[in-house]
Amino acid sequence: MMERDWKAQCQEFLEMEGDPQQYGRTESLTLSTPRSACPSCGHKITATENIPVLSFLLLGGKCSACKKPISIQYPLVELTTACLSVIVAMRFGVSHASLAALVFTWCLIALTLIDFHKQLLPDSITYPLMWLGILYSFTGNFTDLQSSVIGASAGYMSLWLVFQLFKLVTGKEGMGYGDFKLLAALGAWCGWQLLPLIILLSSVVGAVVGIAMLVSGYTKRAQPIPFGPYLATAGWIALMWGEQLNNTYLGLLR
């Protein structure tokens, strides 16, 4: 959807001649329409073939029409989402805090996968997530309003300064602007007090995984590695158990 919009905007900006249908502008394209289809043969996925995890097992991991393998990503994402949702429900119980944490969790899952595949953190998710965090801080459940606003500002500025310093020293861009916006959203939800924990956790995990990927040959040295998944993981952990982890960390320093 975003790629189609970008192409259409470029066509308009450059005043290029051409059929709008070339970029799908005359076709309806949303999260619900058109219906999901097999990428190999175009078979429309029926309701019974779209039951999370269960349909994948019943179909034997293959399309019912062309018998081509279905990516294991689909059931893994569905299973991961279910497990994390159960953890959230157990952590916060039956409350509006639990509902808010579920929205937070689902957004982070979407951002993680998009960044992993496309090296992109779309504004259409990061900005609403940030504003939702600020608005929800009025309840005082995860953090208070002042800490939320400072957290959003400090989250964005901290990575922006690192970006500018890295660019000044090396002449290269070390990360994308989406990372700034994601950390701003995490700061809005968790408060500025947990930003050091989020940055520490994401940096350590990112460094370990990145080194492992280089050593194993999965990625090359010049190939960019998305930082968003590590930020999202650290932010989710911080929202769930950040205060306890902070207290434990500070206790060890005393």
Shape: globular
Distance between the termini: 51 Å
List unreliable stretches of 5+ residues. none
Beta content comes to under 5%
Count up the helices.
9
**Cα-atom radius of gyration:** 21 Å
Average pLDDT, rounded to a whole number, is 88
Structure in words:
- With 254 residues, this protein is mainly alpha-helical.
- 64% of the residues lie in helices and 0% in strands.
- It has nine helices and no strands.
- The radius of gyration is 21 Å and the shape is globular.
- The mean pLDDT is 88.
Give a quick rundown of the structure:
With 254 residues, this protein is mainly α. It contains nine helices and no strands.
Produce the secondary structure layout.
Blueprint: H1 2-13, H2 54-58, H3 73-92, H4 96-118, H5 123-136, H6 145-170, H7 177-190, H8 195-216, H9 228-253
Helix pairs in contact: 3-4, 4-5, 4-9, 5-6, 5-7, 6-7, 7-9, 8-9
List keywords for this structure.
254 residues; 0% strand
